[in-house]
Amino acid sequence: MPKDIMLPTDAFAPAGERGEPQRLAAIDLGSNSFHLLVANYQNERLQVVARLGEKVQLAAGLDEHGQLSEEAIQRALDCLGRFAPFLTDITQQNLRIVGTNALRDAHNSQAFIERAEAQLGHPIEIIAGREEARLIYLGAAHALAENGRRLIVDIGGGSTEFIIGEAFEPKALESLRMGCVTFSRRFFPEGELSEKRMRRAELAALSELANIQRPYQHLGWDDPVGSSGTIKAVASVLLAYGDTSQEGLITRSGLKKLRERLIKCKQLDNVELDGLKADRAKVFPAGVAILSAIFEAFDLAQMRFADGALREGVLYDMAGRNSAEDSRSKSLEVLKRTYEVDTRQADNVADTAARLFTELNRDWSLSSSLGRYLEWASHVHEIGLAISHSQFHRHGAYLLEHSDLAGFSRPEQRLLAFLVRAHRRKFPLKEWQTLPKNQQAQSAKLARLLRLAVLLNHSRPETAPPLPNMAADDDHLTITLPESDEPTLLGTDLEQEQAYMHAAGFQLNVVESPPKQT
Fold it and tell me: Can you point out the beta strands (E) in 207-261?
């Protein structure tokens, strides 16, 4: 059954100067636990409506071939079924479901995602490790009142995130492949607990930490903070045994005593400690080993636990989307500066694309949420020119798909990369068919609009040109140009575009209209 259910009586905030509270929900599909958080957002604050957490141990269902077992998938689906009743009054744009390390690693994650999406009626996003770290920091930073530079550590089931930041701005982000579930399977496979096995787990964690140890120490921090289940559990056990002076505080000496106490248990099945929930006991020693290595690598004297992690970060990030604070727009602005994009041309293409979207939306019924991707793709369609003019659409798509873009999930980056890949030359049918089936029809239409916006601005004018007369009917698009005795650049471009579209199975008709009689 779900754990940690919370239904406060003051969940609904009164209407304030900013209007009625906005109801938001996030589901964190973690490698160890799934979490649901429903909250009202108003005046830049979250008021919790419902909080649920359940141990699913998705990472424990990964076999040696990287396949999620049917048992693990069913555990996950059963959990989501219990979450579903809490989502009935949440609008589509106010719900975000994110998957982390186990779903990043699983080769058959798409099969699970399709079943889960069918069950919930909502898309699921797999986020990259550094994006997970950014969202964790956002959630933790909102839970901390103090100023100063912080080191945030979040030990999950399959990965551990490390962030250094000030206020709400991260300075360094990293996600390392070590977690309490994966380390339990790797170092305690038969359930034996010993000094030797603990030390092997700690050395493996130290090996992972070696890549970030010096740069993080060079950047420095004033306040080490831990978030999420493992660190919360460690703090709880230390308090229960009197090994810490205050709630939520972990000291190096207390952690050493806890480590010794665990080794005396000799078997994972024997781990029963005051302050430790039974459903965490078997993965707890691995989490302690990882935390001990972190204390050793960074020479920490203490660390305090803070509420606020990935799911809170997802809600705060969602509240900032579609506004000037949208981290995705900020990421693309950085990308444009990095690759020295011609901003006038990008703005002209974006302006033309927006007018095309409005003009044809009556016929094509395009999703307004996807319109953002057309706008973003217009602004970055030329970033590949920084690498080479030859095949620059391919270079740009590669950069967009594989860069760490704050705010974007992997599916979002893949869609953006596809639009840039598809904006010129042959239509990339192979890449198009790898997109989710429910996204293919509209993504093809967006790509066709971007292609036309680029063609209409081929001469790189000072300002975006007027649109020709256009009409659309399903996959058929008709463009009417003024009659001309001489070939024009636009007419020549559109002839070639007709051939590209025909080869891809789409129809583009270009007709000429005689000049109006006066």
Answer: 223-227, 249-251
In the predicted structure, residue 6 carries a pLDDT above the cut 70: no
Q: What number of other Cβ atoms are within 10 A of residue 299's Cβ? A: 9
Nearest to 328 by CA among 404, 387, 395, 394: 404
d(CA 506, CA 501): 5
Name which residue leads in pLDDT, 325 or 490.
490
Looking at every residue in the chain, the average pLDDT score rounds to 91
Ramachandran area for residue 266 (φ above 0: left; ψ -120 to 50: alpha; else beta):
left
Q: 75: which 2 tokens?
A: 């555990």
In contact, 134 and 144? CB cutoff 8 Å: no
| DSSP annotation string for 51-81 | EEEEE--SGGGB-TTS-B-HHHHHHHHHHHH
* Structure token digits, residue 246: 């205050």
Record: fold of 321-467:
Hypothetical protein af1432 (1.10.3210)
Query: What integer is the mean pLDDT of 347-372?
Result: 91
360: buried, middle or exposed (CB in 10 Å: 19+, 13-18, 0-12)?
buried
Reference 333, options 318, 347, 317; nearest CA is 347
Instruction: Please say whether the beta carbons of 75 and 116 come within 8 A.
Output: no
Q: Are strands 124-126 and 45-55 parallel, antiparallel or unpaired?
A: unpaired
Rounded CA separation 436/216 (Å): 38
Contact 482, 451 (CB under 8 A): no
> Among residues 24, 34, 19, 18, which one has the least CA distance to residue 279?
34
What global pTM score does this model have? Answer: 0.81
Same CATH topology for 3-127 and 321-467: the answer is no
Measuring CA to CA, which residue among 439, 446, 136, 180 is closest to residue 309? 136
Q: CB neighbours (10 Å) of residue 242?
A: 10
For the chain, give every domain's residue range: 3-127, 130-309, 321-467
The CATH number fitting domain 130-309, selected from 3.40.30.10, 3.30.420.150, 3.30.70.20, 3.30.465.10: 3.30.420.150
pLDDT value at 262 more than 50: yes
**Span 3-127 CATH architecture:** 2-Layer Sandwich (3.30)
In whole angstroms, give the CA distance from residue 102 to residue 506: 39
Cα–Cα dist 421/416, whole Å: 9
pLDDT at 14: 33
Beta partners for residue 40, in sequence order: 23, 47
Alpha helices in 68-126 (DSSP H): 70-83, 101-105, 109-120
Tokens of 257: 């005593």
